[in-house]
Write a structure and sequence with these properties.
Layout: E1 4-9, H1 17-34, E2 40-45, H2 51-58, E3 67-71, H3 88-93, E4 98-101, H4 104-109, H5 114-126, E5 130-135, H6 144-155, H7 161-166, E6 168-171, H8 188-206, E7 215-219, H9 227-231, E8 238-241, H10 248-256
Parallel strand pairs: 1-2, 1-8, 2-3, 3-4, 4-5, 5-6, 6-7, 7-8
Helix pairs in contact: 1-2, 1-10, 6-8
The protein binds 2-phosphoglycolic acid.
GO molecular function, one term: triose-phosphate isomerase activity
Pathway: Carbohydrate degradation; glycolysis; D-glyceraldehyde 3-phosphate from glycerone phosphate: step 1/1; Carbohydrate biosynthesis; gluconeogenesis
Keywords: Cytoplasm, Gluconeogenesis, Glycolysis, Isomerase
Length: 258
């Protein structure tokens, strides 16, 4: 069986490198206690300011070959006068192998449209990194399937089937993300229904073959209490963990469910 992906999206946390290092050290000790039997690949996505240091830590000790570095965003141009932005070549130099793109906090809080997500997605591929592409409906209403279909179509527009096969998709219903008022996790059953639908759109529109389908993860209020319910499903290739990934005890508890 393929290893499951566990993506730790630290968002704008923690506040200091000392705290970040504590989380990584704690997880490293846990990996050491597992010996050879790891059923997961870890991708840590710290804030930009910790990428360089985190990258060094991930190359040492029990992390080596088990844990990878990811960024939380990218700019779509590789060079230019773009104040405040970070380019693909810069991320490459820091050792980032994955980049989250289209996270709902950027789509909805910062107004990033599908077209922008699409340009960023192409920049990640152009710079030989793996996009972790977030998609998900904002509300679960009668139209949510149409919304999701259109979002997937616009997000992946212009990509070849091969390029889409290189991506990881994170299905994250926005209403399930812990930072939203009243958030509650989706159920594995309904997440699988949406994941099926996403795969059908990719197969229908891009003629993707079953063997070339991207991995699809679930994200949204994943904790140690429900991680096993999602991870245990063969249709779900992993989880994207936000809030719980910066709580070292909770994150290791999540890993212990796999
Ligand atoms: P959450 O965040 O696990 O805190 O709900 C997930 C995400 O926003 O990616």
């Amino acid at each position: 069986m393929d290893k499951k992906y566990i993506v730790a999206n630290w968002k704008m946390n923690p506040q200091t490198w000392a705290e970040a290092e504590q989380i990584l050290d704690f997880v490293d000790d846990y990996l050491g206690s597992l010996g050879e039997s790891k059923e997961f690949s870890l991708i840590f996505c710290p804030p930009f300011v910790f990428l360089e240091e985190a990258g060094k830590v991930l190359k040492t000790s029990h992390f080596e070959h088990e844990a990878f570095l990811g960024a939380q965003d990218i700019f779509w141009e590789d060079t230019g006068a773009d104040t405040g932005e970070i380019s693909g070549p810069m991320l490459n130099k820091l050792g980032a192998e994955y980049v989250i793109v289209g996270h709902s906090e950027r789509r909805w809080k910062l107004g990033e449209p599908d077209e922008t997500v699409n340009k960023k997605l192409k920049a990640i591929l152009r710079n030989a990194m793996v996009p972790i592409v977030c998609v998900g409906e904002r509300v679960r209403d009668g139209n949510f399937k149409e919304f999701l279909k259109e979002q997937v179509e616009k997000t992946f527009a212009g990509l070849t089937p091969d390029d889409i096969g290189k991506c990881i998709i994170a299905y994250e219903p926005v209403w399930a993300i812990s930072s939203n008022p009243g958030a509650r996790p989706d159920t594995p059953e309904s997440a699988i229904e949406s994941i099926h639908m996403i795969r059908e759109v990719l197969i229908g529109n891009w003629k993707l073959e079953i063997g070339n389908l991207p991995k699809v993860l679930y994200g949204g209020s994943v904790t140690s209490k429900n991680a096993a319910d999602f991870i245990g499903q063969k249709e779900i290739d992993g989880i994207l963990v936000g809030g719980a990934s910066v709580n070292k005890d909770e994150f290791v508890k999540i890993l212990s469910q796999i």
